[in-house]
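Exercise: predict the fold of this chain.
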Amino acid sequence: MGGHAFEHDGLDGSPAVKISRLSPSEYSNLKSNVADTLTTFFEQVRPLQEAPGKADYGDIDFLVEGPHRAFTPEHLKIAVSATALRSNGGPITNFAVPFTGENGDTKYAQVDVQTCHKENIDWLTFHQSYGDLWQILGTIIRRYGLTANDKGLFLRIEEGEERNWQGSMVFLSRDPAAVVTFLGMDWGTFEAGFATLDNIFDWLAQCRLIDTDIFVRTAQDHRERNIKTRPMFRRFLEEFVPALPAKDADTLPSRSNVLHQALESFGARSEYEEKHRAILDGNLEVKATDLALQALRPSEDVSKNATKNLNLVIRSIKRWVRLVSEHLELRTQPEMDIDRQLKLRELLDRDQETLNEGHERWIKDNFEELKSVEKQRMKEAKEARKEVGSRMDHD
């Protein structure tokens, strides 16, 4: 999207097309005509709402769902009278559609058609409409551990977001009205539409989580590109936010408050607790691994070979060692099932800040044997793979 799909020749060799920006009247007329055509192909056709007050438009965006019959992008191309299309097999197909300019000359507009599923078209319509609306709202809610993307609204687990941002997220909802209500804004106002940018900004200011000081800092830390390239975002930041009355910090909820409110509102507590436990266990595993490496690393040897041996022994501990009645012992056979292997976090002391002294001593005393048994296992596994490959070649 953005009107740049036809700047270069297509992968199929089709030539580039010069795309013109559309005046408000050209945009409105072409959008209406294309929408009428798309309704003959799809059950739902949603033109995305642009930010109000734009002087011109770079493209026209549609979300569609529920094809009436089987067809190809070529069929759509013919139906909308496009001279070219671009498609990489994903959900968005770009069309270069001719239109008559206000001076009577023929120009070309980029029309983007994004195919959606029935369960997410409402959310995508909400999330992608009105220009930078969600860039602004996403900046407001970021500090509270909330993230919105094309899949819905998510809660980030604080203990996991630094190590694995995506892995820390818990799904909350893709219901636009429920999300807006949770954030303290009026859904009816959004549905009615916005005539001006100030209307949008006033609506955003209803958000119960907005903290003007934090918004400015978050925008500067994480949205520098938006400030430079997105005029709607920049105007909200530089003109609208400074005019808002400052909120008393005591009246704003904490991240923990919002966490529990979200879990209750969206019924996500069970998934959160399961994922939270897994993240805490993962964090302990990382800590225990680091402590084991520190304890085993010879202070005078930082060579690649020493690091290789350390990593080998760490793998060996998981596969060859088991904990029996608080004591470590070597297995007679390796445990290759990851779920049943020894977890290094089991070697931590009760404070979970240091390795258990006895476990650390046992590992150091058995370092060479641990290295030896894992090396032998790897050698035998390699020979077995060679033998299987040799048999397949003969067959």
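Check your answer against the key: The chain has three domains: 24-118, 129-267, 278-389.
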